[in-house]
Every structure is written in C-alpha cells, then in structure tokens.
Design a protein that fits this description.
By secondary structure, the chain is of the alpha/beta class. It has a single domain, classed as Glutaredoxin, CATH 3.40.30. The chain is built from 6 helices and 7 strands.
C-alpha cells in the first residue's frame, strides 16, 4: 500500500464529503454565508433558561418576545479562541444596529468545567467588555435545541422569528469576509427582504 496515499486518505475523504455537501467545513460559512438549506426559513427554537447576564435581575428574552425585531444569536464559550475572535464583530453590530431594533444575544455553552461556572462566565463577560445579553447554557439545553455542532455559530433571525442565515466558525477565517457579508444580510433583514 502506498504510504503517501494512506496519510492523505482522511483529508481526501473530508474534502469529498464537503464537496458533496455532506459536511460543512468548520471555520467557514455554510454556503458562503448565504441561507443554510437546513435552517433557512425554519422557526428559531425558543430560548430556554433563566440565567442571564446583562439584563435586569429576573428578566429574560425569548424569540417570541423579539418578534418584529431582527435578532442575532451567537453560540460561544469563553475559552474558545475562535469565539473570542468574533466578539468584536458582535459588539460592533450591537452598537451599530441597536437603535434600529436589532438585538444581539450571546448563548454561552461551556466546553469545560471552568466554563460551566456562572461566576467565571460573568467575570469573563465583564473582562471582554460584552454589553449585550448573554444566556448561560450550562446544561447545553439551547445547544441541543438549536442542534449546534461547533463554536462559534451565528444565526440571523428575521422579524417573523425565522432563522434566515447561519455562519459557523470565525467570521474572518482565511479572509472569508464574514463580518461584511453578515452586516449586509442584517441590513437586508431590516428592510424586510
């Protein structure tokens, strides 16, 4: 057996699966930031959980409450470098579009035990300068409801509460231009397109 071919076999298999559309490549957009065939137009799963940061005590957000507004939901965890690289884009969207009715929600789903501790998450949210609402998803309830696969993932939800776009991975991985693409899509959703 050719040893060089044996070493390349896993990579070739992954490339074949991605080319056939049976696998999305982590770190890049699904369908170049366009509608994900598996999620476009699907009603966004309702958020679950009562542990929120950056909301008044006892307050919570829900997809139902946010109907009529464009909503950006992103899954992240504070120990993930790919997640950290996307945080500035979320903050820019939050600042740029808040007066237009856009809501940004971070869903913090832990990967490690340290990330599961609410005090650690609150400390990191403050250190990282995150001002928008963050839902703590310590038991992965939202992760499972949204059928998450990787960190980070960004969903754009239209005014009717439907998932319109999904981006998995870093927005600027290999100069993908994800922030600009998603910004354009947010503007389109605000116009009702």
């Amino acid at each position: 057996m050719n040893i060089a071919l044996t070493r390349k076999a896993p990579a070739l298999l992954l490339m074949l699966l991605a080319a056939l559309g049976l696998l999305s490549v982590p770190g890049g957009p699904l369908f170049a930031g366009e509608s994900s065939q598996s999620s476009a137009g699907v009603v966004a799963p309702e958020l679950t959980g009562d542990s929120w940061l950056n909301l008044p005590k006892g307050s919570r957000l829900s997809i139902a409450i946010l109907k009529g507004r464009v909503t950006i939901v992103h899954f992240w965890t504070f120990g993930c470098i790919n997640c950290k690289r996307n945080l500035p884009a979320y903050s820019r969207w939050w600042k740029r579009f808040a007066d237009k009715g856009v809501v940004v929600i971070g869903i913090h789903t832990p990967e490690t035990e340290a990330e599961r501790d609410p005090a650690n998450v609150a400390k990191k949210v403050k250190e990282l300068g995150i001002g928008y609402p963050v839902l703590l998803d310590a038991e992965h309830q939202n992760w499972n409801r949204w059928q998450q696969r990787i960190w980070p993932a960004i969903y754009l939800i239209d005014k009717q509460g439907r998932v319109r776009y999904l981006w998995e991975g870093e927005l600027e991985y290999q100069n993908a231009g994800g922030e600009a693409k998603m910004t354009r899509l947010i503007v389109e959703l605000l116009k009702g397109q």
